[in-house]
Write a structure and sequence with these properties.
single chain; 2 domains; about 0% strand; mainly alpha; about 85% helix
């Protein structure tokens, strides 16, 4: 009887294996996912608490103090700031030129080519020009912050009356 029972048990295990194995794997995966979700929730709470602390600290500081904190945190020197200002100006000009020349080049191609290709080139030209202008705004903003030694919100920078001259000038406006 023992041999029959043992043989029957082993055959049942073989037959049940295709069902039992995936069930066990799914249970293990679910446990692992629960542990990961719990760790993610704890990490998110810690990051939110740290972000709230930093936000409260920054709310008490003036834009100039925020800039000085940033300079100190990154360990920048006056030479490094001047170098960044020159690099921001050059990058701003390069972004405008690249976007503008690419736009004009694609417009020229549209005059030569026919059909649906013109529609594709028009979309590419618009994206290229927009990307160039956005990059120019970004680097003009950074250049302005380096000049004024304050951290200015982007909205405040874009609403400045001298925005166009800051974007297009070859020299840093003072």
């Amino acid at each position: 009887m023992g041999k029959v029972k043992g043989g029957l048990t082993s055959w049942l295990k073989v037959l049940a294996y295709p069902v039992l194995r995936p069930t066990r794997d799914i249970r293990r995966s679910a446990e692992s996912l629960r542990e990961q979700a719990k760790a993610n929730r704890q990490g998110r709470k810690q990051r939110e608490a740290a972000a709230k602390e930093v936000t409260e600290l920054l709310a008490e500081m003036s834009p100039a103090e925020k800039f000085e904190q940033t300079v100190e945190a990154w360990g920048w020197t006056e030479e490094a700031l001047e170098s960044q200002q020159v690099a921001a100006r050059r990058t701003r000009i390069a972004a405008l030129l690249t976007g503008g020349l690419g736009f004009l080049g694609l417009l020229g191609l549209m005059l030569v080519l026919q059909g649906w290709v013109v529609l594709v080139l028009a979309a590419v030209a618009i994206v290229l020009a927009t990307g160039g202008v956005l990059q120019a705004v970004r680097f003009a903003w950074w250049e302005f912050q380096l000049q004024s030694r304050t951290l200015v919100p982007l909205r405040a920078f874009v609403s400045r009356p001298d925005l166009l001259s800051r974007l297009t000038s070859l020299r840093s406006p003072r």
